Records
---
Amino acid sequence: MSSIASVASAAADLSASFQGQLLMPADEGYDVARKVHNGLVDKRPALIARCHGVADVVDAVALATKLGLEVAVRGGGHNVAGRATIDGGVVIDLSLMKGVRVDPVAKTVWAQGGVTWGEVNRETQLYGLAVTGGVVSTTGIAGLTLGGGLGWLMGKYGLALDNLRAVELVTAEGKVLRASKQEEPDLFWGLRGGGGNFGIATSLEYDLHTVGPIITGGPIIHPIERSRDVLEFFRASARSLTDEHTLFATLTHAPDGSGAEVAALVTCHCGQPADAERAVRPLKQFGAPIMDLVGPMPYCQLNSMLDANYPRGALNYWKSNFLKELSDAAIATMTDCFARCPTPMGQLLLEHIHGAATRVGAGDTAFPHRQKGYNFLVLAQWMQPSDTNRCVAWARETYESMRPFFAPGRYVNYLDDDEARDSVVAAYGQNYRRLQQIKTKYDPNNFFRMNQNIRPLA
Ligand SMILES: Cc1cc2nc3c(=O)[nH]c(=O)nc-3n(C[C@H](O)[C@H](O)[C@H](O)COP(=O)(O)OP(=O)(O)OC[C@H]3O[C@@H](n4cnc5c(N)ncnc54)[C@H](O)[C@@H]3O)c2cc1C
């Protein structure tokens, strides 16, 4: 453990060459820089190294090694478990690294590790191109892609990680590597699902596809009394979706701030307008919605339309699992649990996964969950610290009530902070052993362990 004086002295030595900012607790800007998306996470790093480029990242790794301090890596800061920050350690913060370069001819994009989905989409949509990214615009590309990447375009183009061409990585030794199908292929396999376990992704390159700029999407909102009908209709609709068409269902609260509970379908169709119009017609004709906002809109608008529902600094506690099937009993349990939701920002979400995301072999990338079906997410979100205990308790109780319907396997990007190590092992299933071998090769001392950790082999 290093003293404040030794951290200050090492930071002062580095500051002559460091292009970004080195922030210690007494520095202006430290309190803003230490905050992440989830307001429940309140950690105080010894040093925040806000990097400007790859050389800053290499120097920050060397500094943490010299000081013997633990490291956390921050991309977009959205990880609900708060793995992007650390008490008493060094945060290697990439959020100032915002470079994005689109090659519209080759249909690729290169983006640095601090970029968010809104930022990448803004550039790629200039050319009517996109890659599967997060459902909201404020999430970081790095954490989301390295762990998986469920999003509006996954039926047609696979997960975010399925579109990766290459990753530039700074290792625990401070080496700069490039991983792709041709270079360091084992590492590239592990990076596609293995999260931040192998190093710091300073930039990521993706394949792009023709998307929009106008797509068809939005939410359709029904009264909460129709929850069961809406979820049954969702289940029936999900059976025959084309790849272009993604459909999620949620029991949530009205976006008008009234706190009214509602059942909603949220959709995106990235195909031709006439096909999209035909595909969303049954959704629009079902029941008697309170509000129907599904229609043509720019892809960037779809990507940001839910942002306001997840404000930065709100207190969050999430739990999730893939479902075996969405049975009548699962629907009934969800409906009953949501009736007990203690917060007007709480939500139960079903993300339907099909199409291209499910046509990749479970062992082709480190992300093994390739079966058609649903990811179930309990999303407890609230503003007042005095509500914390009851909101966390509701999320845990709801999760336990839904357990009989769970499939094996969980999505690492949604694991919460109190998950036992068993959850990480279970999350990777058959791929865990190979991930351990790659971890042992690239990070034998587990320098990168503030993540959903893969343990190196002894
Ligand atoms: C409001 C909200 C919406 C979300 N929506 C979606 C969604 O639509 N689809 C989906 O799949 N997930 C979604 N997520 C979950 C999201 O994938 C994870 O929270 C993910 O970790 C966020 O990435 P980040 O870069 O913002 O995270 P950070 O908190 O910055 O990082 C999380 C972890 O990722 C690793 N990491 C981050 N950057 C790097 C890097 N450059 N190099 C190496 N490792 C790195 C580190 O281990 C770090 O601890 C959402 C989360 C929130 C809060």
---
Amino acid sequence: MEMPDKPQELSAYLDRHFTCACGREHYASLKRVSIREGALKDLPKFSKELGFHNLYLVSDPITYEIAGKACMDLLSGAGIQAKIQVLQHTGFDEATIGELLFNMPLDCDLLVAVGTGAINDMTRFFSFRTGRPFFTVATAAPMDGFASSIGVLNINHLKTTVDAQTPTAIIGDTDILKGAPYRMIAAGLGDLLGKFTCLCDWKVAKIITGEHYCDRIVELVESCVQNVLKDADKAVDRDPQVLGDIMNGLVLTGVAMSLYGNSRPASGCEHHMSHYWEMMFEQKGEKPVPHGTQVSVGTVLMLKLIEALRRGKIDFDAARDFARSYQEADWESEIHSAYGPAADGIIAMEKTAQKNEVNAHLNRIDEMEQHWDEILSLLEALPSSAEIMNLLRSLQSPCLPQKIGVDKDLLKKTFLYSKEVRARYTLLQMVWDLGLLDTLSDEVIKECAED
Ligand SMILES: [Zn+2]
Ligand SMILES: [Zn+2]
């Protein structure tokens, strides 16, 4: 089947093989999604349609009350055999795995995660390791990891990324989602707002480095984020329609990652900032704010940086001088001071990625100079930082770095070095390529301090 040239409903992209004008094939294995008022009723329906007869539900005491009990009633009403485990061991570690295994009906054919975050990660992993598929019944939508195929668990007291699987169905009942705390709603919206900068990353990368690009996937994600943004101010009133749209957007961006085969459609410079903060907080033994909240702050910072870039004039010859002045040994010692114990991995990655290598850098400057008008029109199409900040403020969500524990020193390092966490070309790398990252980030840091 041909990948649709106009964005369609999410359901049109599930479990279908597409050929695409971009030259690649796209496939997402997720089979069913229901996000609506009363969507819980689709749990027995989807189970029957997909041939599951014996379900093992996973909840904690809170999600049991929010949705687990209602799921069990619906399943028993539909004559489907089901057991629910209300977790007593909620460390999401070896003890939780043991509890799940000990209580699992031997003949169950489907796991169901009732919850978000850790419950999902655990069920994603547990179902994978016991060779069964799983569904997600979401109780909140704070990030776009629903369709992810990895999980994060506490193994040997360490946060560990484990291989897992993507869900077969995702259910988001807006009657339940509207009860989620504001900080979770704002985090979900924040993760979605990050798509503006992340898609812009991809568009400039296509021009500057010739990276492979799929405009059908970009348009799909873009149209859904625009759709959410137009009514996002109603999120503060817990408008079920808007909360459903946010969750739909988060599931859809997850599907877009599956379709493309990596996280390019959903993670860019704003996520690199968040990854860097996660690493730094972990090194200090501190707990960072939720992922989506970090992403929303990263998005605001990037929009401010691009606004600062657009205020000035670009001197491509000065950029060339900057490129030629690069000293690998100096860069390495800066990375040691910015990344601490994580520096070796970053330095090893650069050895293969060669993002900072002088000739490639000079070539990118040539491309930018040739296509600057085109790049500028992409930057002009971004929403303003003020618009995004107002939206986040209406949800009482932090939108400035100092509100999430990022001080001036860490902020400067974030601007200069967070681009090094991945080999992916982003707006941060572009501003660095132009030799302007140091001066423009100072402008933004000053602005943030005054806001
Ligand atoms: Zn994210
Ligand atoms: Zn494509």
---
Amino acid sequence: MQYDLAIIGGGPAGVAAGVYAARKRLKTILITKEFGGQSVVSADIQNWIGTVSVSGEELANMLEKHIRTYASDVVDIRAGELVEKISKKPASHQEQDDSFVIKTAHGEEKAKTVLVTTGSERRKLSVSRADTFENKGLTYCASCDGPMFSGKDTIVIGGGNAGFETAAQLLAYAKSVTLLESENEFGADPITVEKVLSNPHMKAVNGTRILEIKGDTFVKSVVYEKGGKKEELPAEGVFVEIGLAPTTSFVKDLIELNKYRQIIIDPRTQKTSVKGLWAAGDCTDTLYHQNNIAAGDAVRALEDIYIYLKA
Ligand SMILES: Cc1cc2nc3c(=O)[nH]c(=O)nc-3n(C[C@H](O)[C@H](O)[C@H](O)COP(=O)(O)OP(=O)(O)OC[C@H]3O[C@@H](n4cnc5c(N)ncnc54)[C@H](O)[C@@H]3O)c2cc1C
């Protein structure tokens, strides 16, 4: 069978598009690794419009419930699946236009149009032995793993807003928090930096270069360099907050990406460089990335896809 539309991703963008596709009765397949997206790890989201406060997990449940309620026989939902590649199939005699082949571990699906909403993933620390200690003291999620380091010395790597927010969370229970930043200035908002640094258990060092994570079964210390001098800082918990990387590797050979591997889109329509393929949310080169923006951008894409299919 050939779908009108394949939506890849089940974060705010993918679900918003799915709900609109159901209302417009576009025969759609929505394939997602999981529902909810990146903010699923947040303890408290206060800016999802219309909702005063919601945890990331609750938001994920709300999104899944919303699409499942209206999916009926219009939107086929395939959760727990990862799209490995999207390619373009040349038009046949029966079909007027090219269609897309979406490959997952479970097989292939065909669709006339595709909307990519696969968001971003945490950028990994690429220094000696960092991967060995992942989930053995080195973690990418303070709200998931932070409480395990109650009363312990911890290190946060990264001095942007996410790094300082992580430090603020850890200060509620850790013995000490030391933040290591590579640049000479912190990227976080000055008001956040000032507030977090006023805590007596907090220290921050800028202009550092991480060299190695040390330990045996679990993390014991971080080795870094500052001003040509090597330092070793003992810690049982290391929290990495060095930014996000767009999840676009499965379309890298098909559409145009920018130098950050974000999908280049036309902001009026969300169209990509390939006819029949749209993208929305954090995987794109739009300037600001938030839940409400991702949902709105996806709705804009869906309106444009509808015109393309029906005009
Ligand atoms: C810790 C944290 C806290 C945040 N807090 C807030 C906040 O308070 N307010 C706010 O507005 N924004 C917040 N954000 C930003 C917000 O989460 C993002 O802007 C938003 O999630 C982007 O939505 P998206 O749908 O574009 O992508 P994502 O949320 O990243 O969703 C991508 C979806 O695609 C799926 N996927 C990925 N790859 C594949 C694949 N190959 N095949 C199938 N499925 C795939 C994923 O499972 C996921 O469902 C936060 C972000 C983080 C990291």
